[in-house]
Every structure is written in C-alpha cells, then in structure tokens.
Design brief:
two-stranded antiparallel ribbon; 6 strands; globular
C-alpha cells in the first residue's frame, strides 16, 4: 500500500515522537530540541515552538505510544477518535516549500501541539481505513522497544533505524551459528 505523500512523513514523525523518550533519556526536553525535531520533519511553523508546547507534546507522545501498543484496529480507531475529538479541525489544501498539494487540518496559527495531534491523527486515520494497522510495530531486537512504522511494500520491516538493531541482531545470529557449527568440529591440520 502506498500512502499519500503527506501521510507517510506524518507517520514517521509520530514514530519519532514516541521514540523521543527512550531508555530513560528525554530527547525533547528543551525548546531547542523540540525545534530541531520539528525542523527535521519539515513541520510548518517549527520556529515558533516555545516552552509552553513541551508539556503538551509530551502528552501527545504518551497518546501515540498507546496507539502503537493498542495492536487491534478497533482499539487504534478508538484512540484516534479521541485524538480527533481533541483537535479542532479546519481541513484545507495547501502547498509550501518543497511540498506539493497536501492537507493541513488546523489553522496555521493553532498551537504546535494541536497541529501535531491533528496531523498524526489524520495519518493514522489513513492507516486504519486502509487496513494497515499492522504496520505499527515495535522493533524486533530483544534489547530494544522502540516503535517503527513499516512502510515497506511487503510489510517486512522488523527493526528500528535508530539503534542499528537489525545489524546487531544479524551479526549476533551469524556469530551464534558460527559458534554452533565450528564448536563440534576439530581442526585436523
């Protein structure tokens, strides 16, 4: 399934937000960190973020983490409906910067956390409506519990990109296989 060009970045942004509080380390604890996160995701009006936004962004992160943990489309839909109810909607088509036509769901002057919630909720709406809730995943590495959005065509993505988890897991499995196969042989030189 290919999503609209504005849905995929919103899903990636939501996953990155959930992963911003990982392993006891707060990565969005300052206004500067929040601005950098928003800038990196090309979020309109990123430079206007201020200290009043931090707590609400952290609350949004908690809500999005619950979406990833929900698992079942009915539970995801219920959480998304709560997010939509908390977001005043004024959908309109827009284009700016390098972005072609896409939807904005709130007024441009709405607070950043409100706009973030609306963008994430609408991207999740697309995921639920298209039957793709199973693309909301947790990293398959045993020592990682980051979330990811699997945008691969065959739904095969298993590892997050932040912790180099896929490579670490594959190297460990290779070493284990090598130890198992070489452990029973004797060197006959």
């Amino acid at each position: 399934m290919q999503f609209a060009h504005d849905t995929e970045p919103s899903l990636v942004m939501a996953a990155d937000l959930v992963n911003s509080d990982y392993d006891g380390q707060e990565r969005l604890g300052t206004v500067a960190a929040l601005k950098e996160y928003l800038r990196r995701h090309e979020f309109t009006g990123w430079s206007s973020a201020d200290s009043a936004d931090l707590g609400q962004v952290h609350e949004l992160r908690t809500g999005l983490a619950a979406v990833w943990a929900a698992g079942h489309p009915d539970r995801v839909a219920a959480l998304v409906n709560e997010m939509l109810a908390a977001s005043p909607q004024q959908p309109r088509l827009t284009r700016h910067g390098s972005w072609d036509w896409h939807l904005h769901f709130t007024a441009d002057d709405a607070p950043i956390p409100v706009r973030m919630r609306a963008e994430a909720a609408m991207a999740l709406v697309d995921l639920v409506r298209s039957g793709n809730v199973d693309r909301l995943k947790r990293c398959a590495a045993e020592d990682c519990d980051r979330v990811l959005i699997d945008l691969s065509k065959n739904r095969s993505r298993r590892f997050c990109t932040e912790g180099n988890c896929g490579n670490r897991t594959h190297v460990a499995a290779y070493r284990e296989r090598r130890a198992t196969t070489s452990g029973g042989r004797r060197d006959e030189s």
